[in-house]
Specification:
This protein is of the alpha/beta class. It folds into three domains: about 160 residues, Rossmann fold; about 180 residues, Rossmann fold (3-Layer(aba) Sandwich); about 35 residues, Single alpha-helices involved in coiled-coils or other helix-helix interfaces (Up-down Bundle). It is about 40% helix and about 15% strand. It has 15 helices and 15 strands. The strands form three sheets. Strands 1-12-11-10-13-14 form a six-stranded parallel β-sheet, with helices on both faces. Strands 2-7-6-5-8-9 form a six-stranded mixed β-sheet, sandwiched between helices. Strand 5, helix 5 and strand 6 form a beta-alpha-beta unit. Helix 2 crosses helix 8, helix 7 packs parallel to helix 8 and helix 9 crosses helix 10. The termini are far apart.
Length: about 425
C-alpha cells in the first residue's frame, strides 16, 4: 500500500480517483459486442463465451433442478444468510395510504414489481453465490414477474455447484451460462435463450459496468454503475492492527482492480497495520490478486478523525468501516457511502454475506448519488389521485390559473368545463 502522511486538501481530489478511472475501456469494443449479439443472438453468445471465457458451450440455458450436494455446514450458512436478507428487505415494504391533500382531493401510491429483471452474478475466479441471495430474494419479494439469472461458466465450463444449489434453494428453475459484456447485451436486446429485460442488476468488472451503461441506450434501466470493489476504513489509535489488516485484505482479494484505503489520525497505527498486512498476506490463496490490488491502495494519516470523515465523504466508498471507540458519534456525519459498518466488531464480510443488508453497492464514487440495491430497486411506484366534485370547486380555479400562466389553455379549459358543469 502507498502510505501518505497528512496530504494537503488541494491534493485530496486526485487521491480519491480510483485506479480503474485512469484505465481506458475500449467502448467501441463493447458496442461491437452489442452489435454481434443483436445480429446473431445465441450464436454470438456462444462464440463470445468461447473467445473470452475459453469454453465452447453446447447450450446456454441450464436447469437448476437436481442440485449437487454441498457441504452441510455451508448449506446451513446459506439458509441463515437467506433468512436475514429476507427479513431485512421485507421490512422495507412501504404501506400505501390515502391522504387528503385538499378537501375533495385524495392521493396515494402503490408499489409494483418491475415486470422483467435480469440478475448478473459475477463468476470467473470467484463465483459469487452470495450475490444470488442478494438479488433473487428482493426480486421475489417485489413480485417481479420474470427473473432471469445470468452468470459465466466456472473454470470447468459448467454452472458452479454452490451457485447451482443456491438457485435451486431459492426456487429459480434455470440460469443462462453467459457472462461479461455479452451477457449484458443479451439482457438488453434479447435472444432466443436470454429474454430481454426491463432492468439489469448486479456487480461486475469494468467491461460489465461499461456494458450496463450502454444498455440504457436500448431502453433498459440499471441498478447503478457497480464496478471493482472497494473499502475505506477510518480507525483511531485504539483499533487493532490485526482487525484492520484482515478487513483490508478481505476486499483486496476480490480482484486486481479493487482498492482499499485506511485513514487514521495515528501514524503509528498505520505502520503497525502495514506490518500486519505482510504477515496475513503470506498464506492467502489469492495472494497474487491481492498484491496487485494493494499496489494501488492507500494508507493516509490525517490530523483527526473528523478530517478522516471529510475525506471519506469526498471519496464516497462502496464500503465504509468506522473502527472507532466512539463510532456512533460519527454515524450521522457520513453522507456518501454505499454501506457503513459501525464499530470494531462490524466486519465488512458480515454485510457481504449474512447480516441482511445488500452487498450490491455503488462504487467509483457513485455513492454520492446512488443508493445500494434495496427492495425499492425492484419496484416502481405508481401514483393515484381521486378528485370529487368538491375537489374541482376547491382546487380547480388554482389549477386553471397556473395553467394559463404557463400558456397551456387546453389544460385550463379541462378545469373550466368541469366547473361550468357543476353550475348547471
Amino acid at each position: 500500500m502507498i502510505v501518505i502522511q497528512n496530504p494537503e486538501p488541494d491534493a485530496w481530489a486526485e487521491l480519491t480517483l480510483r485506479p480503474s478511472q485512469s484505465q481506458s475501456i475500449d467502448r467501441q469494443k463493447v458496442q461491437d459486442i452489442f452489435n454481434a449479439v443483436k445480429a446473431d443472438g445465441d450464436a454470438a453468445l456462444i462464440e463470445l463465451t468461447d473467445r473470452y471465457d475459453g469454453h465452447r458451450l453446447s447450450k446456454l440455458v441450464v436447469s437448476t433442478k437436481q442440485p449437487p450436494k454441498i457441504d452441510e455446514e455451508l448449506a446451513r450458512a446459506i439458509k441463515i444468510a437467506a433468512k436475514n436478507i429476507k427479513t431485512y428487505h421485507a421490512a422495507q415494504q412501504i404501506d400505501s395510504r390515502q391522504i387528503e391533500t385538499s378537501p375533495g382531493v385524495e392521493c396515494w401510491s402503490r408499489a409494483v414489481g418491475i415486470d422483467r429483471v435480469g440478475l448478473y452474478i459475477p463468476g470467473g475466479t470467484a463465483p459469487l453465490f452470495s450475490t444470488v441471495l442478494m438479488l433473487v430474494i428482493p426480486a421475489q419479494l417485489a413480485k417481479c414477474q420474470e427473473i432471469t439469472v445470468v452468470t459465466p461458466p466456472d473454470s470447468s465450463g459448467h454452472l458452479d455447484p454452490v451457485m447451482h444449489w443456491t438457485l435451486d434453494y431459492l426456487g429459480v428453475d434455470q440460469v443462462c451460462l453467459v457472462g461479461g459484456a455479452q451477457a449484458i447485451a443479451a439482457l438488453s436486446l434479447g435472444t432466443k435463450s436470454v429474454p430481454r429485460v426491463d432492468k439489469i442488476f448486479g456487480p461486475g468488472n469494468q467491461w460489465v459496468t461499461a456494458a450496463k451503461e450502454l444498455s440504457t441506450r436500448y431502453g433498459c434501466a440499471i441498478d447503478m454503475p457497480a464496478g471493482p470493489s472497494e473499502v475505506l476504513i477510518i480507525a483511531d489509535q485504539n483499533a487493532k492492527p490485526t482487525f484492520l489488516a484482515a478487513d483490508l485484505l478481505s476486499q483486496a482479494e476480490h480482484g486486481p482492480d479493487s482498492q482499499v484505503i485506511l485513514l487514521s489520525d495515528s501514524q503509528t497505527l498505520i505502520e503497525e497495520t502495514m506490518t500486519e498486512l505482510k504477515i496475513q498476506l503470506e498464506d492467502l490463496p489469492r495472494r497474487s490478486i491481492t498484491e496487485s490490488s494493494l499496489q494501488q491502495s492507500l494508507a493516509i494519516s490525517l490530523v483527526d478523525i473528523s478530517t478522516c470523515v471529510k475525506w471519506a465523504n469526498l471519496y464516497a466508498p462502496e464500503h465504509l468501516i468506522l473502527n472507532l471507540v466512539d463510532a456512533d458519534a460519527y454515524v450521522d456525519q457520513i453522507r456518501n457511502a454505499g454501506s457503513v459498518f459501525v464499530g470494531p466488531w462490524s466486519s465488512e464480510s458480515m454485510g457481504d454475506y449474512a447480516s441482511g443488508t445488500n452487498h450490491t453497492l455503488p462504487t467509483a464514487g457513485f455513492a454520492r448519488n446512488y443508493s445500494g440495491v434495496s427492495l425499492s430497486s425492484f419496484q416502481k411506484r405508481i401514483s393515484y389521485q381521486r378528485i370529487s366534485k368538491r375537489g374541482v370547486v376547491e382546487l380547480g380555479p388554482a389549477v386553471a390559473k397556473m395553467a394559463r400562466a404557463e400558456k397551456l389553455e387546453a389544460h385550463a379549459r379541462s378545469i373550466d368545463i368541469r366547473l361550468k358543469s357543476l353550475e348547471s
